[in-house]
Design a protein that fits this description.
Helices cover 63% and strands 7% of the residues. The chain has helices at residues 31-58, 63-83, 85-88, 96-105, 107-120; strands at residues 19-22, 25-28. Strands 1-2 form a two-stranded antiparallel ribbon. The termini are far apart.
Length: 122
Amino acid sequence: MRAREKRCRGGCSPDASGCHTGGLVRICCGEVKKMILVQTIGVFAALMSVIGVVLAASKAKRPLLRALGSAVCGAASLGAVNLLAGYTGVSIALNYATAFVAVVLGAPGVVTMLLLRVLLLF
């Protein structure tokens, strides 16, 4: 008796050319295109954030000091949110995306991530 083949959500079989195996995760059919689109949008948003911060900091008398101060405040506020997570029940995971937002956008970026976390209940 032949074992039953597993099929992905898109309906392709494991040996079809639409399936991609990478480590423990198998991505099939259109999921690869969705992931590439999301990554492209993320890179574009990050680039626009950096451009906005550079333009805003360049108008100050001491742009490097202002950018450094904003980065330190953002990192400190991200750390404060995670230190108080035991009391509030809300934490923000530390990964590349959250660290980027905290360093580039500063405390307003951390507050925005916190609001998104609370409102969307992640």
